[in-house]
Design brief:
The chain is α/β, with parallel strands linked by helices. The chain contains 8 helices and 14 strands. It has 2 domains: 116 residues, Nucleotidyltransferase, domain 5 (2-Layer Sandwich); 106 residues, Nucleotidyltransferase, domain 5. The chain binds beta-D-glucopyranose.
Length: 255
């Protein structure tokens, strides 16, 4: 049990862990500030990134953090996660499908762990502390990386597992045309990529009438080079928590 603030003891800082394609990152988080407490630790993602190997890396990461063994832990997985069960594997090892990830990580870390979709965690953090802080109505956060992750947050409430990167547009899955990995692989200029992003965000706008789009993922640090090329009516903001978003969101959702 974590100590409550009311009994005068300090609550342990929650731990956030973000499982990405190239690295698995972890840090202690201050849930009132949405910031890291101390250093972020990173270990290369194992290849293949099977559930057991990822769980073992997460255990090693927690050994490196000076955390309280009662601290809540949240872990992201880049897949559908419903009640802790992984339901898809678009960009991860197929062995994840059907895995009870809450149990996998809880056993590896010897305490309850809350597992969340990576974009949901990042989106939730952006709405609480980042680019969409204070925004009412519908915020769609889209992370442009290996795939396209999306989070729907309405008046601060997360609607999990939106998976709008898999929307079929013009006969293609959106992420197979507009993810940042596709820009890199096909050597697209920002102008060419901007046209694909306009098509994608235009479709999201048509279907959802959001109040704000937030663009995340590693490429969002270059937002000044491409955000203005996305021609939609809805305001667009670059993510501000950058590579902290997944960790912060995972930790917040575990509290
Ligand atoms: C997955 C999502 C994930 C996104 C970003 C997609 O391919 O289906 O679950 O959030 O990639 O990692």
């Amino acid at each position: 049990m974590t100590a409550g603030a009311s009994d005068g003891e300090q609550r342990p800082h929650p731990v956030g862990v973000d499982f990405g394609g190239s690295g698995i990152k972890a840090a202690l988080v201050d849930p009132d500030a949405g910031a890291f407490v101390g250093e972020r630790h990173r270990i290369e993602t194992p290849v293949p990134a099977t559930p057991e190997r990822v769980a073992s890396v997460v255990r090693d990461l927690l050994d490196r953090l000076e955390e309280d063994s009662h601290a809540p832990v949240g872990v992201t997985v880049p897949a559908v996660v419903k009640n802790g069960i992984v339901g898809s594997a678009a960009n991860i090892d197929r062995g994840w499908i059907g895995v009870d990830a809450n149990t996998l990580f809880s056993e590896a870390l010897d305490r309850p762990v809350v597992v969340t979709n990576d974009a949901d965690a990042a989106g939730f953090a952006e709405v609480r502390f980042g680019a969409a802080a204070g925004q009412s109505g519908l915020v769609i956060v889209a992370t442009l990386g290996t795939g396209i992750g999306t989070a729907l947050v309405y008046d601060g409430v997360l609607v999990p597992n939106a998976e709008l990167g898999h929307l079929e547009i013009d006969g293609h899955e959106a992420e197979s045309r507009a993810a940042n990995s596709v820009r890199e692989r096909e050597g697209l200029s920002f102008g060419e990529w901007g046209e694909r992003l306009t098509r994608y965000f235009g479709e999201l706008e048509r279907l959802f009438s959001p109040d704000l789009f937030v663009i995340g993922g590693g490429v969002s640090k270059h937002a000044s080079q491409f955000l203005h090329l996305i021609e939609v009516e809805t305001p667009l903001e670059p993510a501000t928590l950058l590579n902290r978003a997944g960790i912060v969101g995972a930790a917040l959702l575990a509290c």
